Amino acid sequence: MTPDSINTRDSHLRKFQKELSAGTVSLALLAVLGTAGEPMYGYQIAKRLEQEGEGVLSGKQSALYPVLRNLEGGGLLDSFVEPSVAGPPRRYYRITEAGREALRGWSAAWRATRDSVDAVLQGVHALHLPGEAI
């Protein structure tokens, strides 16, 4: 492979990962907050995503806040601010009942989509050449 073809391949991969991530972050945030025993602030949520998502869902912590605000604006999350002894006040998020309902529906849609894509991709491994990245 030439350096230009590698750059093009990497560019396509980054674009695909960005598009894929855009639709899954909201689901992952609802899942984290849906299984949390208590409200969580942004850094805690980011760390949980990093741990449970095996690094795949980790990214810039600041990128989570617009998604959290959007989910809150849609009535799927509530938030409140509490003072912090170790710095600025923290905004804590918790899932609402509407958020739990959305999480159930989105989880089912995710599983159906994942299963469909997995079925289509079953033959892909047989098509690549040894040493070629898929």
Helix fraction? 55-70%
Tell how many strands the DSSP assignment holds.
Answer: 3
- Going across the major beta sheet, what is the strand order? 1-3-2
Q: How would you sum up the major sheet?
A: 3 strands, antiparallel
Spans where pLDDT lies below 50 across 5 or more residues: none
* SSE pattern, N- to C-terminal: HEHHEEHH
Shape: globular
Report the average pLDDT across residues.
85
Structural class: alpha+beta
Separation of the first and last Cα atoms? 14 Å
Please compute the radius of gyration using only Cα atoms.
18 Å
Beta-strand level of the residues, as a percent range? 5-15%
* Number of continuous helical runs: 5
What's this model, at a glance?
The protein is of the alpha+beta class.
Task: State the main characteristics.
about 130 residues, alpha+beta, three-stranded antiparallel sheet, 5 helices, 3 strands
Please specify the SSE layout and strand pairing.
Elements: H1 3-35, E1 40-41, H2 42-52, H3 64-73, E2 77-84, E3 87-95, H4 97-121, H5 124-127
Antiparallel strand pairs: 1-3, 2-3
Helix pairs in contact: 1-4
